[in-house]
Amino acid sequence: MGLAPVHADGMTLSFLSSHYIQSARFGALSPYVESYITLVLNKGYKPATIVSQLRLIARLNRWLLRTDYDLGRLDELVLEQFQRCEQKKRRTPSAGARVTLQRFLAVLRDARVAPPAQECSVPPTAVECLAERFRRHLLDDQGLAESTVVNYTWHVQKFLNGRFSSGGLSLSSLQAQDAITFIRHTAHDHSTRHAQLLVAGLRSFFRFLRYQGEIETDLAPALPTVANWPLSNLPKYISAEAVQRVLDECDRETAIGRRNYAVLLLLARLGMRGGEVVRLNLEDIDWHNARIIIRASKGPAWTQLPLTAEVGDAIARYLRHDRPRCDCRRLFVRARAPHIALSHTQAITSLVRRALNKAGIESPRKGAHLFRHSLATDMLRRGASLNEIGELLRHHSPNSTAVYAKVELAALRQLAPSWPGGAH
Fold first, then answer.
1. N or C: which end of the chain has fewer CB within 10 A?
2. What is the pTM for the complete model shown?
3. Beta-strand relationship, 285-286 and 291-295
4. What's the topology of domain 240-411?
5. Residue ranges covered by each domain of the chain
6. Collapsing DSSP states into helix, strand and coil, what is residue 276?
7. Could you tell me which residues are beta bridge partners of residue 303?
8. Is 69 part of the annotated catalytic residue set?
9. Catalytic residue among 273, 279, 323, 334
């Protein structure tokens, strides 16, 4: 299916190198051009695009000869000087040009001919230094997952920047009321889960400060608990007919449309989470046994789901005809070069939102979980048990599945006791 990493053949290298040699026959950069060509070919760039990148590198090569710079001094500051010279010649540097120069600099650094990257010349603020210490504590001492650490650190840094906006970091002056006020203002416009992460992050931070001797009193117990009663909310879902309309409206005449259709099927037919779709690797599709390996976001744990004919056909069509040839092992990659993995679940959320809008489906929820909830609700109405639903959705707790019973009003009505006097 053309899934192996791309290696530049001799003809391609010769063709691309000739364009470079025509522009720059000499210079310190020439020995490293072939490595750069191989790199960008593996990223999915077309030869015509690479030619324009090589012309930029050739101009850099000639500029280095004129200015008598050697590779041992080539860094970001030197590249900025080169781009300023380009501007004087009425060549406006684009974002693509800057990316090309940075990528080539990385090739030189990998070859150990350019100096390693230096730390940022702008000194970090006191808040940034403290946030970094807290981050290292969460990773090294607490062993928390990277995603949790990112959430906690972001909330803490936002709190500190607001509390000490006037300058100066006086931790001894911190009061529990400072955090409570921040929580009230911040959590007001967000979900319950967001508020829980916010409070958990601040509690962890205050325990860290007490452990480090930065404050005398542990302020963590004074923070409020976010109310989140079990089974208090109804799951957000759309009907099975609406789900099918979203799938039917997906454009399967284009490569991007067929990729998106395969993603939507994984969400709608198998109830996968957005993060699980993003983390799928090529080797996670077990064609021989018709199953999909689902890897947990934390630790080495994994589960498996059946690979249905409908889902399998969509994935196979995408792999055979539409997935760009690149060295990335993720199943779903960007359609435009550089062909890298979808980096975050936000990409799946955006995909779902566009699909709902195109199908004209109104829903209070627009993320990947909408299809997960819709699948569970439809299964329940078709007679599936809560245990069967929980097994498909890979719930660890029965309470996670029990919430779907609340949407089956007909079944619940039969369980309701009669009102005294005969009324219902």
1. C
2. 0.60
3. antiparallel
4. hpI Integrase; Chain A (1.10.443)
5. 10-110, 126-222, 240-411
6. helix
7. 294
8. no
9. 273
